[in-house]
Design goal:
This protein is mainly alpha-helical and about 210 residues long. Helices cover about 65% and strands about 5% of the residues.
């Protein structure tokens, strides 16, 4: 059973890689390149983007009234987002080294690149930045929580749960008391392997950048 689960996880990884490659090929047709943190469009594409941009005043006039009525409620969520960010960041910084859990790189979850799109006006770019922060934060917090769960309570639920994190399929079966502690120790040891792989990748990145 464990071999079958491992095989399925490997298949999922291959499919995710294939999806990323397919999406990357599609993006190349849009005529842009990513150079570090810079997004570069071809000159003709940039000019067309400027033509497509809706002016700020026109955008305000054509917006639906529901959008303006809901705006205070949307942006009020920024306060709990920031509080969540602060508290989870403190927990992450203090407890992960104590547990021996490799830290989660924020940069892998936050991307603020939509400001390079010339067909967006200033308010649309602000909205995009807010969405990028909110979704990036929740994805980062999910991974922090997933690693915490793997360390303390890596047991699957008896009921089907939607939206489980990527570590969940590796967890121990619900009710399998005979093997639980052995699997718990194995999953904790996996963190050391992940830390070595992350250190190796950072080393390769430093060498390639030197």
């Amino acid at each position: 059973m464990e071999d079958r689960v491992r095989e399925l996880l490997q298949q999922m990884t291959r499919l995710e890689d294939e999806l990323r490659q397919t999406l990357a090929a599609k993006e190349q047709k849009v005529f842009f390149q990513v150079n570090g943190k810079r997004i570069e469009f071809e000159g003709a594409v940039k000019a067309r983007h400027r033509q497509l941009r809706m002016g700020f005043l026109r955008w305000l006039v054509t917006s639906r009234p529901q959008n303006w009525l809901s705006a205070p409620f949307i942006y009020a969520v920024f306060i709990p987002f920031v509080l969540l960010d602060i508290f989870v960041s403190i927990y992450h910084a203090v407890c992960f080294p104590l547990y021996g859990i490799p830290k989660v790189r924020r940069a892998d979850f936050f991307a603020y690149d939509r400001q390079h799109l010339g067909y967006l006006n200033s308010l649309e770019k602000l909205n995009c930045t807010y969405c990028a922060y909110g979704n990036g934060l929740l994805a980062w917090v999910t991974e922090v929580t997933a690693r915490t769960e793997q360390y303390w309570c890596p047991i699957k639920h008896a009921h089907k749960v939607l939206g489980t994190h990527l570590r969940y399929p590796r967890f121990a079966a619900f009710g399998d008391g005979e093997n639980y502690h052995a699997e718990l120790n194995a999953l904790r040891k996996d963190f050391r392997r992940e830390a070595r792989e992350a250190a190796s990748q950072r080393g390769e990145g430093d060498q390639s950048g030197s």
